[in-house]
Protein 1
Amino acid sequence: MKIGQVVEEQREFFRTGKTLSYTFRDEQLQRLYAAVSTREKKILEALHKDLHKSDQEAYMTEIGLVLAEITHMRKNLKNWMKVRIEEAPVSQFPGKTYQIKEPYGVVLVMAPWNYPFLLAMQPLVGAIAAGNCCVVKPAAASEATSTVIGELLSETFARQYVAVVSGGEENREELLNQKFDYIFFTGGMKAGRQVMKRAAENLTPVTLELGGKSPCIIEESADLSLAAKRIVFGKFVNSGQTCVAPDYLLVQKTVKREFLRQVRKWIKKTWGEKPLEHPDYPKMIDEKQYERVMGLLLGESILVGGYGRKKTLQIAPTLLDGVTWASPIMQDEIFGPILPVLEFSSMEEVIHTLQEKDKPLALYLFTKNDKAKRKILKRLSYGGGCINDTLVHLSVPKLPFGGVGGSGIGNYHGRASFETFTHTKGILEKENWLDIPVRYLPSKYWKEWVMRKILK
């Protein structure tokens, strides 16, 4: 398959106008929903093979979210597509103004390996709903899931409408050589910069869903047991290979000792005494990632875990104490099942410290103190997050998801996905029965007087 030919085929199909109607878009979303539903078993098997995800985890964090996104999109799409009438200013009388939602055209979705099904399909749902043609590039590292995605999409859609380009670096580079109308990329910061640089050559707009070090703050009024339970879930699901996982803990000194006891308790309750023997404990994607994360443990003070099993690419849930901002593990996103613990004395200290850091993709705060909550929400900038929970803000279709600063550009989910893949066209439509002469030469005092009355 020649990538350039596929892109050109899609451009020709888009120009026919077939993707523009609500009926066509809704039919394609129905087909996608049916295709995912009927292939659920294959998708679960692929996710287990790639990342050792249990059926429950795979459905909760991937398949179920895709189906819910399609359902939400179909429920609201007709309303979102409507032409929006705006009030015309007096200066443009007689006339009317309105906004038209139109698709960009041919778009590229580039997915990562950590949630290989969700992060390929969820942006695709938005692209279809907005009326685009789409090329999907699954991650090469998650080979089993990428194969299933290729089969699913090729059997559901014609290539000139939705196409899949698999493979590694060579195909990725060839895709970036093409002129797309929009590029949606999910992945690391380094690769994101490369994509943005290549997109800039064609002035192609981009959404970059990146990552960073997402803090999790435990203020002294928090329900410590419930906080520990929800943090253990959010950190160790998918073995920590989640872009919005709590990257590190900031725990108020007054409750640190008890809180760490609760974290130990919930790690044991969740995964048992021997987590690597637990049938549902996930693995690292490949040996390279396994070795990278194990290397982060060198010289650290380990409270829990700290060991792995290379044969199965699994690393035990790990809790680190005695960590400082200068520690090697605090310099880059961890992206693995290691949770460093730092301490603080006051919320002001936390705010001042985090204001000096890069803006994260997520932030989590556990507290019963409304004043502390308001301070964090008002004074810290980050992509999104939760109060008294972790991760689950991603499951709410009505909430936009995306980064800010180094953690990403743009957002999606629900209506935000529709808007991301849509260009809003502003139109002023004038009447012919009256043509007010104020704007035309020759200049007159009375014309300027009228202008000053209406343009202010």
Note: The first helix runs from residue 3 to 15.
Protein 2
Amino acid sequence: MRRSLLAVVFVAVAGVAGALAYAAWANEREFDRLMAAGDAAVTAERHFQAIEAFSGAVTRKPDSMVAHLKRGSVYLGQGELDAALRDLRRATEIDPSAPRPLELVGDVNIALRRAERAVESYEACVALDDRNARVLYKLGLARYRAGRAAAAIEPLQQAIALDPALGEAHYMLGLVRRDQNQWPAARASLETSVRLSPGSQTASREALAEVYGLEGDHTRSINQLEALAALEPTRPDRLVAVGLAQARAGRTDAAVTTLSRAVERFPDAPQGYAALGKVWLASAQTRGDRVALNKALEALQQAANRSDATSETLAELGRAWLLAGDGQAAERALRQAVSRLPVPPDAYLQLANVTARDGRIQDARDALVKYATLVGDAQPMATVSTRIAEFSIRLGEPALAVRWFDRAIDESGPSAALLVRLAEAAWKAGDLARAHQVVDEGLSAEPNHRALLQLKRRLPPL
């Protein structure tokens, strides 16, 4: 009896073990089938079927790094970035020693414009495999986009040492050198990138044309832009870029010819008319040429009449009307310009000039303040700050004038004329102590300055 019972138990255990073994074998077999089906679907570019197959594989083996990796790769290729990130992060958790998931996590973060996170992923990948030129290039790219251009140099140089034919690394290194104002080094890297991929590296040619222009080599710059126009003959902006480069090089006649050709070939493209008008306007301003001014107005109006006219085009039209002496038309164009983003700061400056001529001081000051806000510290502001301060005095706001006179002095230095205006503004604002202080500082530098001495006598005692 006892032996029979043991035999029954043995058979039962063996049966269960056999069933489990068979189930595991069947599960593994189905997993392999689903993975193969997913690979075949990827090869055939049937992405939905690939995701279905890999999802089935993940269900069969939730701890499979490869299944998560492959499904995440398909999601990435389809632009489903959140889904891709979930899969790829899970793959890195399952196997932290695998470099490929880390690389793809970096790729997703680059696509999501999370450069710092991409840097972390690529650095972790490089720590596992520092001989992968592609990943080193991506690390340099991520650091550059994160605003760490200097730190991008080392991985880019390492990538080039491992794979000298990696044109993207030469291109990125050229951008870094350009941003560091190392133009000869930038030119060398970008020329190499163009040479390695002569037909496809449009970005390299654009950057190389820019560097040539920065070096003053306008002929080579124009040659690169002409090559781009030949590579992409259906893009009007390529031909426009050639014409504008010719204008910057002082080749006005060639620029007009090129841009006229652009207008003829692409009559529905407003940028051609806008660029042609800009060149004619520059010619009118430098030569005092009324014929050129009329042609500028004609071209700019053609561009400005489009519903998609840019703020810059409308601002150029405003300048042209100003030069033609039509203040009302200039103001209409400039107000349209400042109502569309992005606004060129100079549009506010021109609007201030127009409104100031008509005695609308409030409007003029408001325009100058907006100009100052947009420009910040990027350009000299002493003259504009002084105008804002003087308009504020006329508007009966001396305390505001003090602030703007201070800004003008901070930038241009304490000239006696500005110190007089600042002291007068402080006096009108009721700050007699500040007025005395400013006058005393001015007299310590110029003891015999007549206006300062006169103001000193007029100021009430403290």
Note: Residues 402-462 form one domain.
Protein 3
Amino acid sequence: MNLYRPIYHFLPEKNWMNDPNGLLYFNEEYHLFYQYNPDADHWDTMHWGHAKSKDLVHWEHLPIGLHPSLELGELHCYSGCAVNDDGVPTILYTSVGEGERSAADGPEQWLATSRDGMASWEKHPDNPVLTLEAHGGMTIKDWRDPFVWKEGNIWYMAVGGIHEGKGCALVYRSSNLLQWQFLNKLCEGTEGIWECPNFFKLGDKHVLVYSPGGQVKYLTGTWKADYTFTPEISGALDANGFEGFYAPNSMIGPDGRRLMWGWIPEADRREFKGNAGWAGIQSIPRVLSLGADHTLRMEPAAELQMLRRNGIQLDEKRIVSAEEPLPIRGRALEFTAEFQLESDTPAFGIKLLRSPNGEEETVLTFDPANGTVSIDRTRSSLADEPNKSIVSGELDFASESDVKLHLFLDHSVLEVFVNAELCLTARIYPTLASGDGVSLFAADPKGVTMRTFKGWEMASIWE
């Protein structure tokens, strides 16, 4: 039994994977590209891996989509996007070499197309389609990760970068995807870099998502006639930083939903060798929407329900002890639960991957008094190497009457959704094969009322 390799999160058969790229629905299939090193389980020589799915859940590995064109001075095919240009699948990505073509000083935006249903790709002979010269006298560093969309007959592109020491997103337009005009600096922040910008409309607002080398941020606001974006609301896509959920990318599904995947890195394993030979997974697909207050809402895609097996359902009860074992065990599980909040509700939560004597366990805790939700990994592994820090996010319990939990455990990854407004993602590396227990707890005998609880074992997406 492999204690660490997920069975219902996407990952390649071996070697290194990072950012999701080129998300596209084409010919009734979902396509996922991703940053990939085909030669080792560490970052280097970036290619575009490729997979497809008919149902958003079960995936088929395909041949590598993009290879670096070494003969043209290209060493890496960095992140980007894919669009449907009147029936022609088209990739736009950042091409990187060395020296004057380095990632910091000389990246270029390149284009590739497919004429055989996305089985193979041809880079355009006129590449690059956009260079740093488009900015005139502006000096932009680390310019990368194009995100393209269409409004009417006009294509728009957002690209991340650094201007005068500040992370920013810049915006361009084109009528044909080949000739681009720089429009403006879309938005900038205080961080040192912005990577993988996504810019899209939800409801009556626009949303800008960016990855600043740490916690992934979002802004909702107004896109103005001068092509600048004015933020009105800000937040985080995930409570964890680079180690948990990073460089997300999104697409419009055939039903109009905004779907997003994020890279879940392997950084927290550090020198741990239990899962050597592969590194990095993709998150489960998240569905994005806007709340009435224009904050971002995030929920797991409903299609994942087809993986549920051997479900349990518990009646309402009061949780009053430090250990209330549940009649379900495993390393690939999904839970939904609802807890009633009262004025004096103590800390409460759920223990996962618990060994019989408690030597190993990962603890999800809701703490109304301190306004936090946390994943405590202090005892998640008997191995010394993995990161065992606590991942914590803030939640305004005072404004909630109930806490709604949706949790996904898949061997070495834990994804938690709380009230569709807070997400926490963490990697865990337990060593004991016997550690598959699950229990609820309350930190004080005053307890908490569990209104509902449902749980399922989860099947593999490769079956």
Note: The CA atoms of residues 268 and 387 lie 5 Å apart.
Protein 4
Amino acid sequence: MSTEILEYTKVEEIPKIVSELEASYFSGITLDLEFRKQQLLALYRLIKENTAALVDAMKKDLNKSEFESLMSEIMGVEYEIGYQLANFEKWLVSEKPDLSYQPGYAGADIRVEKVPQGVIISVSPWNYPFRLTMLPLVGMIAAGNVVVVKQSEVSQHTTALLSRLLGQYVDNRILKIVNGGPKETGVLLEQKADHICYTGSGAVGKIMVTAAAKHLAKVTLELGGKSPVIVYGLEKQDLDIAARRIIWGKLINCGQTCLGVDYILVEKNLREYLVKQLVAAVKEFYTENPKASPDYGRIIAQRHYDRIFNLVSGSKGDVVLGNIKDWDRETLYIPPTIVDKVEFGDSLLSEEIFGPILPVVSIDSISQALTYVNQNDHPLAIYCFTNDSEVKSAVSKFTRSGSLVFNDTMMHSGCHSVPFGGVGPSGTGAYMGKASIDNFSHHKTVMVSKLHSLDQKLDKLYH
């Protein structure tokens, strides 16, 4: 297939792009629910008519296999479109509050309407360039907003293709594209918007919040972080399944997943056996030669390759899988790497790895694990493998994270009936399904009082 060329938006055009969207919003075009349905159906056609091209673009950017692109990027967006089409009208129905505790308002006409917020700037990342652009966009359109989409310039093939397709399929009165790097993004963030939605690093997330503060815009941030796996209170026979689920959650997309497994805290007497099972799982999934495996991805760019290389080079742990001599900077190949006997304070625990490196740390007690997790930023997810109900209770009560999953990794992100989002340093706000309607709508209280009360009418009758 031919390669799309990513063209940057001229910075002098960006203010006009945003002002045109604002004018479209105030024209009332998005208030028509049938119009919104047509735009969602257009997104669905975009996918169905261009699946092969999208898969090819993601292969060029991240070496994703067709199966991985379909499973982790495309199918979830298809489902979200159908889910919104089937439900967004009822999710938008005005809500009547319970006034029974305030008799003075009994019988009053008070309701909460979910109305569009207006202009949304949506900035998406390179690691899931289709999914994380489209999933929030579906909810934004269903909620009646107009949107400026700014995709990552790093995933250039997918960004170039999707920019063209969005312009081709969606009404450009409600959706416009801005492409470019930090310069273009900076100019975009100077424009007045009602909501800024961003997925990416915490450092850039702070820039987004600062930009939003200038106009007091609402923000949605999905920022990731170091999502730990805690393995405690398991029988040895359960470690095989646990290892396979951990490796899947670590190595999908070559470890470049905001929700992905970052490191393991494992009960001391289970560590050695778990490491053996982790190594076995890697070889089962990606063979003895992952470089030749059609299912194994690549790092997005040399800058990220170098960062990961430095983290591993500085580690004092024992590399039990993944020889650093096999790394290939030119092809951006980093093999699945398991580092055992990592100590607290190690370079691999200093920042989010965002690559196929799995540090394993021994712990003496569940309280030690919780103490360590709580000393660090609240992660987007915590994964805990245990059969001990007291451990489950302790992890649930005494940690904070965007989500908490027992005995699995990442699977909750495919459920469209629950919100997807972080807490504190891992993000704010959430979307997916109904949560998208709630997040991208303004909940407006409307009260209608009568100018003439019953008392006034009776007074006129008898006087």
Note: The chain has two domains: 11-223+423-448, 227-414.
